[in-house]
UniProtKB/TrEMBL annotation:
Its main location: membrane. Gene3D superfamilies: Cation efflux protein transmembrane domain, Cation efflux protein, cytoplasmic domain. The chain crosses the membrane at residues 26-44, 98-116, 128-149, 198-216. NCBIfam families: CDF. InterPro entries: Cation_efflux, Cation_efflux_CTD, Cation_efflux_CTD_sf, Cation_efflux_TM, Cation_efflux_TMD_sf, CDF_Transporter. It is a multi-pass membrane protein. The keyword Nucleotide-binding does not apply. It comes from the Bacteria. It comes from Clostridium gelidum. It holds the Pfam family ZT_dimer. Residues 228-304 form the Cation efflux protein cytoplasmic domain. Residues 32-224 form the Cation efflux protein transmembrane domain. This is Cation diffusion facilitator transporter. The keyword Transmembrane applies.
Amino acid sequence: MFFEHMVNIFIKNNSNVKDDRVRNSYGVFGGIVGILVNALLFIIKLSVGLLVSSIAIMADAFNNLSDAASSLITILGFKLSSKPADREHPFGHGRIEYLSALIVAFMVMLVGVQFIKSSFERIINPTPVTFELVPFILIFISIFLKVWLSRFNKFVGEKINSTALKASSVDALGDVFTSTCVAISFLAANFTTFPIDGYIGMVVALFIVYSGFSLVKDTISPLLGEAPDPELVNSIKEMVLSYENISGAHDLIIHNYGPGKCMASIHAEIPSNISVVAIHEIIDKAEREISAALRIYLVIHIDPICIIEGEVKDAYEEILSLISEYDYIESIHDFRVVGEGDVKNLIFDIVVDSLKQSPITDSELIDKFCESVRKSHSNYNCIITVDKNFI
C-alpha cells in the first residue's frame, strides 16, 4: 500500500507503534502532511474564488486554511503530550492531545460562523459568478486530494489509535461533500442567474459548523471521563483471572490520562486460607506483567473469600438465587459470614448494572434483600454495599 510505503520512508521503526516516540513520529508526520495538502488546497480555492467572485469557493478555501491550522495544532498537541511525567503531572501530559483537538474543533466552528454571515450577505446582495473551465477542473482536483487526505488520516489514526487524526479523517471526508456542493454551484452558475452561490455557501458554512460541533463532542468526552474501551476492560479481567488462585475479579476502575496512558485498579478474589506472602507474590507478578503487556499502570486489591463448603456456601447459593429475581443486578462479590453463636452477619456487595434503571433506591434494595433473607434465616443480619459498574 502507498501509505505503508510513505511511513517506511519517513518513520523509523514504524512497526513498533506502542513506543511513545514512534507514535509521536506518526502524529507529527500526519500533521505535516495535513498542513501541506490543506495549504495547497487553500491557495488553489482562494485563487479560484477571487477569480470568479464565488463566496462558496472562498468559504471552502478558508475551511481548508482552518484545517491546515488544525494540523499545526495537532502537531503541537503530539509534541506537548509526549512530555515525560513530572511532579505536577505524575501520569504525564497525554490529555494535551485531547485539548489540542478541542481547540481545533472550536476553530472549525468559528470559520463556519463567519461564512454563514458572508453567505447570508451574498444571498441578500447577489454578485454574478463567472464560470471558467480551468478553475472548475482545479476544484475537482482538490476533491480528489481531500479523498486521499481522508484515507491517509484514517490509516495513521487507526495505526496509532489517535482520536485527533481519526477526527481529521472524518473532517476531510466532510470536506469532500462541501467541495462537491461548491463545484455543483459553480457549474450551475453557467446556466442560471439565480444566486445559488450564496445558498451553497450557506450549506457549506452550516456543514462546517456541524463538523466542528461533532469534533467538540468527540474530544470533550474523554476529558469528562468516558467509559473505557471494552476491549481493554475484557483484557484486564481475562489476564487477572488467568493467574493461579485468583477466582474472581470485580470493581475495575480505569482512569484515562491520554491515549495509551491509563491507570487501572481492580479487586481480585483469592482463597482466604493461602498465606499472605504467597498471594502477595502472585498479585505482584500479575500487576507487573499485565501493566507491561497492556501499557497501563495496574493496581490489584486482594479480597480473601471462603465459600468452598458448609454454611458459607449454602448462604452464598441462596443469595445468588435471590439476585436472579432482579434483572438490574449483575453480580455479588466479597461474600463472607462473620460472627459466632446464633446471630451472624452476612456481608457482601451487590453490583448494579449502570445501563438499567432500578425501580427502587439503593436503600430500598438493601432493605428488601435483608427482609428476604430473614424470612428463611432469622439469625442472619445482612450488611450490604451497593456497587456501581464504572465500565
